[in-house]
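User: My instructor asked us to take a sequence, write out its structure as tokens, and then describe one feature of it. I'm not sure where to start. Here is the sequence I was given:
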Amino acid sequence: MSTTRDYEVEEVRPEPPPPTWWDRVEQGLRRFAPPALRVVIGLVFVWFGLLKVVDRSPVAELLSATLPFVPQGLLLPALGSVEVLLGAALVIGRFRRITLVVTGGHLAGTFLVFVTAPSLAWSDGNPLLLTADGEFVLKNLVLLCAVLMLLGHRRPDGR
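Assistant: Let's start with the prediction itself. The structure tokens for your sequence are:
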């Protein structure tokens, strides 16, 4: 007759090193940066939207050329109003996911200028030689990536 004994083996893990000052900075940034980014994007949308609503936007001609099928008397105030609403929702932080999805769609839509009005975006038809309007639109890639980052970021409460 043989007897066997089961021994439990306790795994010993080394204690992690104490956090450095940079670890604490990174932890604070992980908490602070996403909401700050959301609010700042929202403020930019409110600002640019209000310029359109009051017909003082420097991109009015660019928009008219990009969306020639939309009645011009409707385009600026409607687009500006949507931007103000999106911006306000971003600042407030309500309906976060849907607001970020719609904001991302809006930013992606700005690239229509390269399709419907390429002469305003490129010098001499060369896509490597951007005009000021082309640069203005292309920088929206950064904003679009920021929105995507916010969509992929979980808040501290897990939502």
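For the description part of your assignment, you could build on this observation: Residues 31-152 form one domain. Try explaining in your own words what that tells you about the chain.
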